[in-house]
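SAMPLE LOG
Freezer: B-3
Tube label: C17
Construct: single chain, 251 aa
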Amino acid sequence: MISSSELDDLMAQSLRDFRKEPAFFRALLDAIVYAHAPLENQSERLRLVMFKSPDDGDFVVPVFTDEAKANFAARGNVRIVSMAGRSLLNAIRGTAVMINPNDARCTLYPEEIKELLASGSIAAVQKGDFTDDETECFRLEKPPRGLTQALKKALPAIRGVDVAFIAGVKWRQADRPNRVLIALGGRAGDAEREVRSTITALHRIVHELAQEVDLTHFDSKQAAPEWIHRLGLKPVYRRQLVTTGHLSKYN
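STRUCTURE (predicted):
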């Protein structure tokens, strides 16, 4: 079994280099991790303390890679429980976790936890910026069929995403290959979660493509980015309003 210091080292490596994330998350499943529980627990069921994430305001379960960090955060107000990472994640399905919230924290969303438990890995995510000096978007003659189908299947379950477009990205450096770009329109405050949930849902099909795939996000309550209109792109997915009797809901 991996030690706390080894797990901390893997986490530090993954924060420096996104390509190291899969190794860290695989190790997390088998490592002993620590969480907070109420001091007085009258129930036989596991109850864990949650708090509001400073990133998006959603409730998350704080999880710690070693007991000292858990005790420091607890300050005697809660008790510490320990278990294998896989067991803890199984117990809190449907809830986000924040690993080491007082340090260089890492959040796992429910969709990522589900995929991690199912396959032992989740998509590694690297944030970056595209500038007009480096890249140019263009209209694909035919978006990858498998990718389009996967988006149509995944996006109805990802809250907040209203629309999606697919384009190509051409680098101005001739030696860099073209890429596929997915533009998601959703809630401005939930951009990271919506992008990461989409990446998680798509990462198996993306792995099968010969091209790399990037995602960008825009506020669907505002006008779509200029390049989408300039290229005359049509949505590959749009959330539909479903009306049943006097009730309306989104699919």
